[in-house]
């Protein structure tokens, strides 16, 4: 019974698509063309390679971000308070 | 007869080179009438004549205007007028601080003849204290390069060894201050552009907390990471400039309202006994070369002798912080430059154009996530400090490499080389924390190296306190490049 309840609360998940580290070079080339920026030959591959390493690394962290987390710098830093003082 | 002999001896004695003084000492000497502003300026101009062909620090020299201003300071002093804290002290600045009516190239071909219509708050604050401005200094194109190479105006050279890089992007600032051409200079630091050249050139370089110094009318590169700060030869000099530069500014809404600390007093206090300094061996020591590691261990030993408690810390995943900072800087710089990338891409050097293009392919979601993770990463770093007053870390893995070996423009290894040069400084910009380079000593070949002190938000005073105490025992500034 308990197991059935538990099961009922589970939202069926779509299996995640395999994350690509960065856009594929033809997509990058298309994106630049759409933005009106001339891309030199071979550059799309280099961009894909360079971004791939950094963004793939960062996305592993980004996936752990709380849904409610907002952009910021210092507000979430721990405030040191002396004992007994408010 | 005796008087004649005395005069003859005085004449025969070499005059002390006034340009070798520290900035604060020079300011005091002018205020007390021991030296004139004109004499200081002439001493700097003599150094510039000697060193400019070797280091290419200046893009534009304003000798006549500076001499005129120096004479005005001397007249004011004679009149008994109240002088500013920097009256008559010759400075010069990275060519990205706008001065109304003057050209500001930003180290680029795109802005070669561009004239600013407003003056940077940082310059206004220095002007208000009577500082002299000797001209505009070389820099990496649009401050987007860590080596000191500039394909439009010529590369800057390290005064300690002119085959070596100055580091960047504040290349001219570092070369000019190290060669004693000026007493101090403004740089800017988005990923290490003050701290890293300070390390390579044996200088004190302060990257303040994000928001500590106004960025109004300074060229932007990445508004979430950009900071304005000084390069000087001595800790007290840096503290003095920071007291003048820091503080709220109605022209820059990101400039903090937090009270400015007593930086000069902190630098001179010498009171470090009982302070706790955290050392993050993981990541920061991973690729450090042996001579640098030995020099830093000696520095730690000295600090320990002064009564500073040295403790180990385990920092959060700094590779991740670096990756997040890469996403952030790439996207923001690309957004700022997108228009020029459309209309005049050929005016960029290969290296800068390539780096800017990277950012155009960063997704909006990745960029926003880099902003969302920021406070978490900062909190994790501060927690890892575990109550320490500051963090002690290397600035770079080794002393200055050669200009030739780092000349990677347009080559596939460019991204890797750039990442390697800034891997120890870039993450701190993402965390928004204050960090300063302090000259640690010299390694074989006479090349200087420094260490990095990283502090809590808006705790620049603590960094000056520790740096000042270290410098008093290890006065690296007494060595002068020849």
Largest sheet of chain A: none
* CA-CA gap between termini of chain A: 48 Å
Give the helices and strands of chain A as they follow along the chain. Answer: HHH
Strand order of the largest sheet of chain B: 1-3-2-4-6-5-10-11-9-7-8
Percent in helix of chain A: 40-55%
Cα-to-Cα separation, first versus last residue of chain B: 39 Å
> Which consecutive residue ranges of chain A, at least 5 long each, have pLDDT under 50?
76-86
Strand content of chain B: 5-15%
Query: What's the alpha carbon Rg of chain B, rounded to whole Å?
Result: 22 Å
Describe the structure.
By secondary structure, chain A is mainly alpha-helical. Chain A is elongated. Chain A has helices spanning about 1-10, 25-35, 45-60. Mean pLDDT of chain A is about 75; it is low at about 75-85. Chain B is α/β, with parallel strands linked by helices. Chain B contains 17 helices and eleven strands. An eleven-stranded mixed sheet of chain B has the order 1-3-2-4-6-5-10-11-9-7-8, sandwiched between helices. In chain B, helix 3 (about 35-55) runs antiparallel to helix 4 (about 65-80), helix 8 (about 235-245) packs antiparallel against helix 9 and helix 12 crosses helix 13. Chain B is globular. The chains are: A mainly alpha (about 90), B alpha/beta (about 475). Chains A and B meet through helix 2 and helix 3 of A and helix 12, helix 13 and helix 14 of B.
Secondary-structure map:
The complex is a heterodimer of chains A (86) and B (482).
Chain A: H1 2-9, H2 25-35, H3 43-62
Helix pairs in contact in A: 2-3
Chain B: H1 2-12, H2 23-31, H3 37-55, E1 58-61, H4 63-79, E2 90-94, H5 121-128, E3 132-137, H6 171-178, E4 184-189, H7 195-201, E5 204-207, E6 227-232, H8 235-245, H9 263-269, E7 276-279, H10 281-284, H11 290-305, E8 309-312, H12 318-343, H13 350-360, H14 364-385, E9 390-394, H15 414-422, H16 426-431, E10 435-443, E11 447-454, H17 460-473
